[in-house]
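wait is this the right file?? whatever heres the structure
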């Protein structure tokens, strides 16, 4: 199973986006992470690494309560420095993970739908997240 990490400068935003995506995710692990670790706005590489490891089956709480290993992790980020910190976290993590170049909310929903497919791969989930860049709203 492919895991998903939602990174935002706001802890509440990350949690809200993960909550919306979880409606489409089946048993997919979706880990929200955000904030500077002190209650403020920002992102922290160590916290993102922990979320990646949890989404990969480490210490996370998947929707199905399982703790099996994943087939990789797709990371969605909101703004500039989140990309840089997620890059560092991916490098530090022992899990296989990629960052999707996608809008965070729409990309997370697309990724969740794709990850719910039993034949999903990390690349197929990433592709669907990135397809959200071309979504028209009107």
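ok assuming it is, sequence goes like this
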């Amino acid at each position: 199973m492919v895991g998903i990490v939602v990174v935002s400068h706001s802890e509440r935003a990350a949690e809200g986006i993960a909550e919306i995506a979880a409606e489409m995710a089946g048993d997919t692990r979706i880990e929200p992470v955000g904030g500077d670790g002190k209650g403020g706005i920002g992102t922290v590489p160590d916290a993102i690494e922990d979320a990646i490891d949890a989404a990969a089956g480490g210490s996370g709480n998947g929707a199905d309560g399982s703790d099996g290993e994943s087939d990789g992790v797709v990371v969605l980020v909101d703004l500039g420095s989140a990309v840089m910190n997620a890059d560092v976290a991916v490098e530090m993590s022992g899990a296989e993970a990629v960052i999707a170049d996608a809008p965070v909310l729409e990309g997370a929903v697309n990724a969740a739908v794709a990850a719910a497919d039993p034949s999903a791969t990390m690349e197929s989930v990433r592709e669907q997240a990135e397809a959200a860049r071309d979504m028209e709203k009107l």
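Confidence is low (pLDDT under 50) at residues 59-67. so i think its the right one actually
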